[in-house]
Description:
This protein has one domain (16-173). Helix content is 59%, strand content 14%. The chain has helices at residues 15-45, 79-101, 106-129, 150-173; strands at 51-55, 58-65, 132-140, 143-144. Strands 1-2-3-4 form a four-stranded antiparallel beta sheet. Helix 2 runs antiparallel to helix 3 and helix 3 packs antiparallel against helix 4. The protein is globular and about 50 Å long.
Amino acid sequence: MARAPKRSGGIGLQKSGRSGLLMWLGLAFIIVLIDQFTKVLVVGYYHLGDSSYVTSFFNMVRAHNTGAAFSFLADASGWQRWFFTGLGVLATGVILWMLKSHAGQRLFCFAMACVLGGAVGNVIDRLLYGYVVDFLDFHSHGYHFPAFNLADSAITLGAACLILDELLRVRRGR
C-alpha cells in the first residue's frame, strides 16, 4: 500500500517558509537596531526639551512619552508603563505566531515585521527608561504634530501595509 508523501512542518513551515520567517524576523531586528541607535544618539546629545532647527517644517527634539500614541494616558500615575509594556510583549507573541502562520504572504509579513520591530523598540524604551524617547518634530503654520520616533514610523508603515494587504485581498476575492 502506497503512503501519501509526508508534509514537512505544517502550515507555513516548509523550507521556504522557515527562511521567509527568518527574513521577517531579520527585518524586525534591523528596525529595532536602527530605532535604538537613533534614540541613543538623541539621549546622548540632547537634554529633555532641547530642540534643533532642521528645516522650516522639521525640528529634532528630545521628548519623553510615558503614554501611548499621541501621549494617550501620559498623565496617569505610572501604571501605564507596565500596561503598555505588557501590551507590547503580548503583541510580540501574537505577531510572531502570525508571521509563522502566514510566512508566504509577503506584504502581510512585511507589515507585521514593521509593527513587531516598532513595538519591540518602544518596549525596550519603557523597560530602560520608563518612557519612550521621541525626537521627530514636524510642524507647519504654528501646529506641531506630536513628536514621534522611528519605532512609531515603522508601526505606522506596518499598519498602512496591513490596510493595503486587506484591500488587495478583498479585491482578489471578487
